[in-house]
TrEMBL record:
Protein name: UDP-glucose 6-dehydrogenase
EC number: 1.1.1.22
UniProt KW keywords: NAD, Oxidoreductase
Cited InterPro entries: 6-PGluconate_DH-like_C_sf, NAD(P)-bd_dom_sf, UDP-Glc/GDP-Man, UDP-Glc/GDP-Man_DH_C, UDP-Glc/GDP-Man_DH_C_sf, UDP-Glc/GDP-Man_DH_dimer, UDP-Glc/GDP-Man_DH_N, UDPglc_DH_bac
Limits of the UDP-glucose/GDP-mannose dehydrogenase C-terminal domain: 322-427
Cross-referenced PANTHER family: UDP-GLUCOSE 6-DEHYDROGENASE TUAD
Catalytic activity: UDP-alpha-D-glucose + 2 NAD(+) + H2O = UDP-alpha-D-glucuronate + 2 NADH + 3 H(+)
Length: 444
């Protein structure tokens, strides 16, 4: 059992804290947001993530998980302190590290015993060392140089929508430290999570930080590559779903992250791709691949809009479009950088009215599309979204959209036109019900 403090109770901090607590550790989760902390004490979560609420409830009840706004209280007995604050993108695409640095400052100001400070948020190469400098400086200012500490980089690899599962059963754990004792301690902490010979990898801090960017940009590159091939298929022929299975059979390529679609979104891929480009730029290196990954994705987010424009023209006044899925991917209510932002806004700007359904993201969408409120109607049932629609647009591949009642849809829609941004349907189904069908790279 270890005593752990999480500084930052957002997505990563909350999942990490709850999972550590569930393994028997004593965890304090700290956040400056008083409302958030008050809610969390009552197991009211700021995000939707499968399995997380149950985990928080159980560990709160059993007293292993506690919430506070007082960082001093959080680190009082702790051996490990994780920095899990946000690193939102700045206007130039670089990661805003101000929350990381103020967390480091706050830790340095109140620690009075040996502490291992772990950067878990995704941070550019060199940030963990800057955290060390800031803490050292704070200790010096208050004449507490005798208080020892260490820093570690321990990037997280969890996916939204599967975060608890990913944390509990990681493919690998990356630990960046040059100190053997710290490495041993971190290994002990993660041992219960790592099964099936999945490794705990010890490396230097900079490699650990870079591993996270390299992994995310590599995954984003696979998606952009498939999206580019899909667009080419739409011009020269070929079906991207056949091509995916064809290349995935090569075990060097593998099966995952090869789905063409409406473009990748979320808080991670877009931000990390931009940060890598930026890091290269600042250091005089053009990151040609990362730049292309980003540009292809921007183009892809407009691909469905281009199709709609080709089919219905520039002016969509008086037309009604049903939308299925607003979140950037299924199993989340997160809309950050979601392709739906580009698609919905473009269609409204062309004069359309949108009737949208999403199983989780409606509340989020109401805030995000506040300025467009007069042009969007939200409905609580997927079939309501197609009533009187001139077309249906599927943007997020929630499971419940996979096998809709096509004959019911047929009776509700004004025109039987379906734009499928996630290649969800078989051509036979579509033909049987007489839909006009547009999809991504399947040359239909
Ligand atoms: C991503 C990584 O997958 C995690 O490993 C990483 O820890 C996380 O970022 C992070 O940096 O914190 P996440 O953003 O939650 O996780 O979501 P993904 O499941 O990776 O999906 C990202 C986007 O790619 C979604 O918009 C999804 O629809 C899209 N996607 C994914 C595709 O278009 N095609 C695919 O084949 C796979």
């Amino acid at each position: 059992m270890m005593k752990i403090c999480m500084v930052g109770t957002g997505y990563v901090g909350l999942v990490t804290g709850a999972c550590f607590a569930d393994m028997g550790n004593e965890v304090w989760c700290v956040d400056v947001d008083e409302v958030k902390i008050t809610n969390l004490k009552a197991a009211i979560l700021p995000i939707y993530e499968p399995g997380l609420k149950e985990l928080v409830e159980r560990n709160l009840k059993e007293g292993r998980l506690r919430f506070t706004t007082e960082i001093k209280l959080g680190i009082e007995d702790a051996l490990l302190c994780f920095i899990t604050v946000g690193t939102p993108p700045c206007e130039d695409g670089s990661a805003d590290l101000s929350y990381i640095f103020s967390a480091a400052q706050a830790i340095g100001q109140c620690m009075n015993h040996y502490l291992i400070v772990v950067t878990k948020s995704t941070v550019p190469v060199g940030t963990t060392e800057k955290v060390r400098d800031i803490i050292r400086q704070e200790l010096k200012v208050s004449a507490r140089e005798h208080v020892g500490f260490d820093v570690v980089s321990n990037p997280e690899f969890l996916k939204e929508g599967a975060a608890v599962e990913d944390f509990m059963r990681p493919d690998r754990v990356v630990i960046g430290t040059e100190n053997i004792g710290t490495a041993e301690l971190m290994k002990q902490l993660y041992k219960p999570f790592v099964r099936n010979q999945n490794p705990i990898l010890i490396m230097d801090t900079k490699s650990a930080e870079m591993t996270k960017y390299a992994a995310n940009v590599m995954l984003a590159a696979r998606i952009s590559f498939m999206n580019e091939i899909a667009q080419l298929c739409d011009i020269v022929g070929g079906d991207i779903t056949n091509i995916r299975t064809g290349i995935a059979a090569d075990h060097r390529i593998g099966r995952q992250f090869l789905y063409a679609g409406a473009g990748y979104g979320g808080s991670c891929f877009p931000k990390d791709v931009k940060e890598l480009i930026n890091l290269g730029y600042k250091n005089g290196l053009e990151m040609a691949i990362a730049t292309a990954v980003h540009e292809v994705n921007e183009r892809q987010k407009h691909y469905l809009v281009d199709m709609i424009r080709k089919r219905f023209g520039e002016k969509l006044d008086g037309m009604r479009f049903g939308v299925w899925g607003l979140a950037f991917k299924p199993q989340t209510d997160d809309m950050r950088e979601a392709p739906s932002l580009v698609i919905v806004q473009s269609l409204i700007n062309m004069g359309a009215k949108i009737v949208a359904f999403d199983p989780q993201a409606i509340k989020e969408a109401q805030q995000v599309f506040e300025d467009y409120a007069d042009h969007i109607q939200y409905v609580g049932d997927m079939m309501e979204a197609v009533n009187d629609a001139d077309a249906l647009i599927l943007i997020t591949d929630w499971r419940q959209f996979r096998q809709p009642d096509f004959s019911d849809m047929k009776s509700r829609m004004r025109q039987l036109v379906l734009f499928d941004g996630r290649n969800q349907y078989d051509f036979e189904q579509i033909e049987k019900y007489g839909f006009e069908y547009y999809c991504i790279g399947r040359n239909y």
